[in-house]
Inverse folding.
């Protein structure tokens, strides 16, 4: 088993070290992580500038690679051939804050695993609901234990093609953890506020400020599981198609339309949408 371990908090983050150490039990571990924090950086593919990669050592002396690219760039580099050995699983984290609901497309932690799916490699993203606690003060023991249990299950059962797992762990001692629940995405409640300021030259500039997001703790969701003291494992795919809308839209009366193109009137073919 060859596991690529990455994160979005940077190669020196304590959660990355804890995760890399926790994955060593499964076989070869290659660490390829960003050289700085990419929190909230989303799914990035850096195409307009070169990417630099350096050899570094983690705090325990183990070798690692770091790149000036995003977390998803690190995974792409690794799976495109920077890592000589075939990668069987991408594991990303341990993020010091939860990634729930709509967070998943903002999250560098989660989008790193999404990149692996694009290259046909399954993955697991792991986040600890550390809230406002400094990442250096968090105890990652529980999150590592949950991550290892999830990876064991993935090794035993496999994952359907295109499916990856988003794991969120409550920030409780291991003996307080009530268990692991398989969940769906819940509803994140963002409390962002526009912070407008003026610089010394009289020009306005803005911060996206506000308070940390909360969520709706509905049963069966990732938000609900954490609220009840469970770790949450949410199976996700990259297919964002709204299949219900597809069915409904096929009922719309798409009229014959004519569009003029370069002065030519082109009758639009009858618009039909792919059936789900
Ligand atoms: N819209 C907001 N999102 C926030 C805020 N604080 C945190 N977040 C979420 O954080 C994660 C970052 O994830 P990471 O894996 O990239 O570290 C991301 O999911 C955001 O949604 C906030 O104040 N506003």
């Amino acid at each position: 088993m060859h596991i690529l371990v990455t994160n979005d908090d940077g190669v020196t983050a304590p959660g990355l070290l804890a995760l890399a150490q926790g994955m060593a039990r499964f076989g070869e571990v290659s660490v390829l992580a960003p050289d700085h924090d990419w929190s909230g950086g989303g799914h990035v593919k850096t195409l307009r500038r070169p990417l630099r990669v350096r050899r570094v050592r983690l705090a325990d002396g183990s070798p690692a690679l770091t790149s000036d690219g995003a977390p998803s760039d690190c995974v792409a580099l690794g799976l495109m051939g920077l890592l000589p050995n075939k990668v069987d699983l991408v594991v990303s984290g341990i993020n010091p804050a939860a990634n729930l609901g709509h967070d998943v497309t903002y999250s560098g932690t989660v989008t790193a695993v999404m990149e692996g799916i694009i290259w046909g490699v399954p993955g697991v993203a792991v986040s600890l609901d550390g809230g406002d606690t400094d990442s250096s003060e968090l105890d990652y023991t529980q999150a590592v234990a949950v991550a290892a249990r999830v990876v064991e299950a993935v090794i035993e059962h496999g994952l359907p093609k295109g499916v990856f797992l988003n794991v969120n762990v409550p920030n409780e001692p291991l003996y307080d953890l009530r268990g692991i629940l398989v969940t769906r995405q819940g509803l994140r409640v963002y409390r962002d506020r526009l912070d407008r300021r003026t610089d010394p030259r009289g020009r306005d500039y803005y911060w996206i400020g506000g308070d940390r997001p909360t969520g709706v703790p509905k049963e069966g969701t990732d938000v609900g599981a954490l609220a009840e003291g469970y770790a949450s494992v949410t199976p996700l795919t990259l297919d964002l198609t709204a299949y219900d809308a597809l069915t409904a839209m096929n009922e719309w009366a798409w009229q014959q339309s004519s569009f003029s193109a370069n002065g030519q009137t082109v009758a639009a073919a009858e618009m039909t949408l792919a059936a789900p």
